[in-house]
Amino acid sequence: xxxxxxxxxxxxxxKGFSQDTYFLGKTNYCTPEKEDSKKKFDAGITGLNFPTxxxxxxxxxxxxxxxxxxxxxxxxxxxxxxxxxxxHKEALVLYYAADSLAQNRAPIFKQxxxxxxxxxxxxxxxxxxxxxxxxxxxxxPEGYYGIANTSMILKDYDNGLENLKTAEEIYRKxxxxxxxxxxxxxxxxxxxxxxxxxLPYFDDVYxxxxxxxxxxxxxxLAQIKVGKxxxxxDLIKKANKTYRKIKNKKxxxxxxxxxxxxxxxx
Length: 266
Prior knowledge:
By secondary structure, this protein is mostly helical. Among the domains are: 1-9 and 20-129, Serine Threonine Protein Phosphatase 5, Tetratricopeptide repeat; 202-265, no CATH class. Helices cover 73% and strands 0% of the residues. Helix 7 runs antiparallel to helix 8 and helix 9 packs antiparallel against helix 10. The longest helix is centred in the middle third of the chain and has 18 residues, at 157-174. The radius of gyration is 21 Å and the shape is elongated. The chain starts with a helix and ends with a helix.
């Protein structure tokens, strides 16, 4: 599962998952009981622009939590700072508290909590949070997109594709469809062994993912499968060229490495 999670993280790296306008500091999902707590939160928003100050700002935010224990936004922002400092276990605790206190008012809390669950392989819990997003925020594409992500691991690929289509429709209304969505379409169809459908998606995102071994492995596999199916020698040559670009073949996820070895025996 750990290797499969790497694809999830890889896709997030290009997506930079949506954080709407929350970090402009204009939104609070819980009302602070003390004015000083809000000042500390605002300072935390400003501090995001100064990485060298993250440690100090985190301490300030912890003080906001101590003096205002129902202020969910202070919990969330503290968790966010902890994640930025690679303190992922600690961030998970703060995210969980923030989401609980917000009482289903904050999609960004659920999204970040779900991603943190995924980091620790707690996929069922992540799926639950994404399903809550869809339930409480049906016009937000991130919940549908998150369900598609978790479907890679839970292996309900058709459910993933259905939710990804919904996410794509909503994304399209507000902006262009990003490469992470296209890549996910390719991944899910590849896992279903529907390589003919997957290949055009992998073609489209080449420039974004061409340095990632798991992407290259999936791309090569789709090329060789479609090439052999159509007796297309040029595509078969391209598949071999793509395969040779993979730097660490031992790091490829099992779902791809097994069929890949059959097509490219060494």
